[in-house]
Design a protein that fits this description.
Number of helices: 14
Structural class: mainly alpha
Shape: elongated
Radius of gyration: 37 Å
Oligomer: single chain
Distance between the termini: 98 Å
Number of strands: 0
Strand content: under 5%
Length: 294
């Protein structure tokens, strides 16, 4: 230990030295003016620190606030809690009959597919079921308390997004369950092909029906979306061949149109665009044609 070191003097002033070390430094201080001045500096600094610390009175609830802050949820946790609360609140506002009706319809589709040994019933009807339920999810025609809903602090687009997420998830579960049921008549390695056959069309057709329902009403939206979906199943040569010998133009158009419905990447991309348009349209209720329909 260097008794002439300023650090040793600082430790001596703070009372941090052992008894024998403190005695040695004390003996040294008796005959060293330089170290005495160093000791005086550290004692004066310590007194000022003690005085300032005594003047600063902590709030009485400081410990409680510190514990509350330490246990407070993170921003992500708060966001998840708000999302869960919004989904729970909107779930009860979706038409109650929709849940049972959708499940019953899907069960009927699966039964018919199993009896007829034709899995195509599911790939045709699953998108139609989803489109109908999404079209009946939001808007004055589907929400008896729509004016009250719009008066809440929650943004309309958040309400629409919450309801759309709930109904879409339900439709997805029903369609997946139906696809699994078809394994009773199909090989397991075809499950992926079955899902891909309805997944992308379901996403786009549902998004289209939802957007149209916001602008022209639920019934009109379902009619147009169903027509757009069923059109690519038509066979003009079989239906109109006897009356319209020349159907090349229609056949060429339908060939391209069928290819559109068989393009998963394109359909999923368009579904995102159309859903974005639906969410954006909630900001302009004054332009909603649905409100002007008789």
């Amino acid at each position: 230990m260097n008794v002439h070191d300023p650090e040793t003097i600082a430790l001596y002033a703070a009372g941090q030295l052992a008894a024998d070390e403190a005695a040695t430094v004390g003996n040294h201080l008796a005959g060293c003016p330089e170290c005495q001045a160093e000791l005086a500096f550290w004692r004066k600094l310590g007194a000022e620190i003690n005085t300032s610390s005594a003047a600063a009175v902590p709030p009485p609830d400081l410990a409680e606030r510190a514990l509350k802050q330490a246990h407070a949820p993170s921003p992500l946790q708060r966001a998840l809690q708000r999302t869960a609360a919004l989904l729970q609140a909107q779930m009860v506002l979706v038409r109650r009959e929709m849940w049972a009706a959708s499940a019953a319809f899907m069960a009927l589709v699966v039964v018919v597919a199993l009896i007829s040994d034709h899995a195509g019933f599911l790939t045709i009807l699953a998108p139609m079921l989803s489109a109908a339920t999404l079209a009946a999810t939001y808007g004055p025609q589907n929400d008896p308390a729509s004016e009250l809903t719009l008066a809440t602090p929650t943004s309309p687009w958040k309400i629409l997004l919450a309801r759309m997420s709930i109904v879409s998830a339900y439709n997805l579960v029903l369609s997946l369950a139906g696809s699994l049921a078809l394994l009773l008549i199909l090989p397991a390695d075809l499950l992926g092909s079955i899902i891909l056959a309805w997944l992308a069309p379901l996403a786009f057709l549902s998004a289209l029906a939802l957007l149209l329902s916001l602008w022209i009403g639920t019934a009109n939206a379902i009619t147009i979306s169903y027509a757009a979906w069923l059109l690519h199943f038509l066979q003009p040569s079989q239906l109109f061949g006897a009356w319209m010998p020349s159907l090349d133009l229609w056949e060429n158009f339908l060939t391209v149109y069928r290819q559109f419905w068989k393009s998963p990447v394109l359909l999923l991309g368009l579904a995102v665009v159309v859903l974005s348009m639906a969410l954006l349209s909630t900001r302009f209720p004054e332009h909603n044609l649905q409100r002007r329909l008789p």
